[in-house]
């Protein structure tokens, strides 16, 4: 025991792969072929819950399981760190780059807009977006492709509520295209070469940023003229916030960077959730029937059919939210994320050297049979009796950086499902899409999930 190296000298087990590229390509390739979870699980089986590797140009420690998650979400020895590719795309002043006081300030500002007290005023607006979307893109069709439609829907909701960009507004369609390309280059080896997704992503990000800067200046003018208020949209809200000395709380650059990050963080995640709920429900007629009953009861308790849903109605959609949670457990939109060690850290007898990247992933914990009985089974009732133990359901992260858009996602999801399940029945077109999806890095079902739809007869 005398010669045993002190823990502080011990790096976690694991191989570092090729210089610079490390294991990035291996992981990305696995994610694209629907084996990303297995790729991580294999490393965990080989090296345990704490292991080292190299990702996106940086030495990295992979952490899995509830104890490691707790460490990631609550330790003050870690700062946020996105892969360099993400920083270059989303900007230096986005919430994902900030820590300590700056992080609290920007997060507090975003939360002014995303908190339940504010959101309850937007349920009606979201209700309108959802109904218009279903009338325009679902009604009267035999087949639809779910994923692109859900992206269109969540983009519509978010661009209206965040930027005041209503349907038909100049720039809204171009922004939608740019955002699709931005997402494609997020997790990449950050080399700006022609024909790479990374370069396309950078270009789209520059265009989107110019548009958002214009929107911010316009919103500022409208506020001055009294044509907008703090509750008009996120940009107006951020512009109206002042510190105790009356100075603007966020700079224009911060507003643009954080509008970008909120759109990226909020749009694709919610559309993935909605898409996979549709997929899982197609295979689970009993759950779907129970959901239809839940929504019919709510609809019957309201006046005429034109009346919009309210915050109180959403509180009654308990089964629907459990279906959402179970979908998030099985197909977490966020595969995992990164932090940086701000000093040498001892963990489980190993050292994580200062400056190294820490990588937490959701799937290993979500698929742990000791936490979730028969983890591969879709079973919304597992969220019925008790909440999952701390730091084991991590689709929204945890701690100081837990997703501030969770309530927003909840509102969008519940409102959409309310109208979808009452108006339509659906069947999957491709058998293979039942269990297959790839990650890029967000999950995407085969062929975007084409379904056959039929109008439900009114009860
Ligand atoms: C189903 C939908 C969503 C999922 C699964 C999701 C998931 C997550 C996760 C896992 C994190 C934490 C990442 C980490 O700690 O490393 C996060 C952070 C964040 N999310 Fe969400 N999110 C969703 C919807 C939204 C929406 C709708 C918005 C905004 C409208 C949003 C805005 C944000 C922001 C700004 C952060 C950064 C918070 C910080 O760093 O303090 N998210 N989200």
From TrEMBL:
State one molecular function term (GO). metal ion binding
Annotated residues that bind heme are located at 403
- Cofactor requirement: heme
On whether Ribosomal protein is a keyword of this UniProt record, the answer is: no
Q: Which InterPro entries match?
A: Cyt_P450, Cyt_P450_CS, Cyt_P450_E_grp-I, Cyt_P450_sf
Sorted alphabetically, which Pfam families does this protein's record hold? Answer: p450 (PF00067)
Question: Keyword set for this entry?
Answer: Heme, Iron, Metal-binding, Monooxygenase, Oxidoreductase, Signal
Q: Which family does it belong to?
A: Belongs to the cytochrome P450 family.
Cross-referenced PANTHER family: CYTOCHROME P450 26, OS07G0518100 PROTEIN
Q: What name does this protein carry?
A: Cytochrome P450
**What organism is the protein native to?**
Urochloa decumbens
Origin organism lineage: Eukaryota, Viridiplantae, Streptophyta, Embryophyta, Tracheophyta
């Amino acid at each position: 025991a005398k010669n045993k190296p002190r823990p502080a000298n011990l790096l976690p087990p694991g191989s570092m792969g090729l210089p610079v590229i490390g294991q990035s390509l291996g992981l990305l390739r696995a994610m694209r072929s629907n084996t990303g979870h297995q790729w991580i699980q294999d490393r965990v089986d080989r090296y345990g819950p704490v292991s080292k590797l190299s990702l996106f140009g940086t030495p990295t420690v992979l952490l899995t399981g509830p104890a490691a998650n707790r460490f990631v979400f609550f330790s003050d020895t870690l700062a946020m760190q996105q892969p360099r590719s993400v920083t270059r795309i989303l900007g230096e002043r986005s919430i994902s780059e900030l820590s300590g006081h700056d992080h609290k300030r920007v997060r507090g500002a975003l939360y002014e807009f995303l908190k339940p007290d504010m959101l309850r005023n937007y349920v009606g607006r979201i209700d309108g977006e959802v109904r218009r979307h279903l009338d325009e893109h679902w009604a009267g069709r035999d087949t639809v492709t779910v994923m692109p439609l859900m992206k269109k829907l969540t983009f519509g909701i978010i661009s209206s509520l965040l930027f005041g960009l209503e349907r038909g507004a100049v720039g809204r369609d171009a922004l939608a295209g740019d955002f699709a390309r931005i997402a494609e280059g997020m997790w990449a080896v950050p080399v700006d070469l022609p024909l790479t997704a990374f370069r396309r992503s950078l270009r789209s990000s520059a265009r989107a940023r110019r548009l958002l800067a214009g929107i911010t200046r316009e919103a500022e003018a409208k506020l001055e003229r009294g044509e907008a208020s703090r509750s008009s949209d996120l940009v107006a809200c951020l512009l109206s916030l002042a510190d105790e000395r009356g100075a603007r709380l966020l700079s224009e650059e911060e507003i643009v960077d954080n509008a970008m990050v909120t759109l990226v963080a909020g749009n694709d995640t919610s559309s993935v959730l909605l898409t996979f709920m549709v997929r899982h429900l197609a295979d689970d007629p009993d759950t779907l029937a129970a959901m239809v009953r839940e929504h019919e009861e709510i609809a019957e308790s309201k006046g005429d059919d034109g009346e919009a849903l309210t915050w109180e109605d959403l509180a009654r959609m308990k089964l629907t939210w459990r279906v959402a949670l179970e979908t998030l457990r099985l197909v977490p939109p966020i595969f995992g994320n990164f932090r940086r060690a701000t000093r040498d850290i001892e963990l489980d007898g190993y050292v994580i050297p200062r400056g190294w990247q820490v990588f937490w992933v959701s799937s290993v914990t979500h698929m742990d049979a000791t936490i979730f009985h028969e983890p591969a089974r879709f079973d919304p009732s597992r969220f019925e009796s008790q909440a999952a133990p701390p730091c084991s359901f991590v689709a929204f992260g945890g701690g100081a950086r837990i997703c501030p858009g969770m309530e927003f996602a909840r509102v969008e999801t519940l409102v959409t499902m309310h109208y979808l399940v009452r108006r339509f029945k659906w069947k999957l077109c491709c058998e293979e899409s039942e269990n297959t999806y790839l990650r890029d890095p967000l999950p995407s079902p085969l062929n975007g999930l084409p379904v056959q739809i039929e109008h439900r007869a009114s009860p």
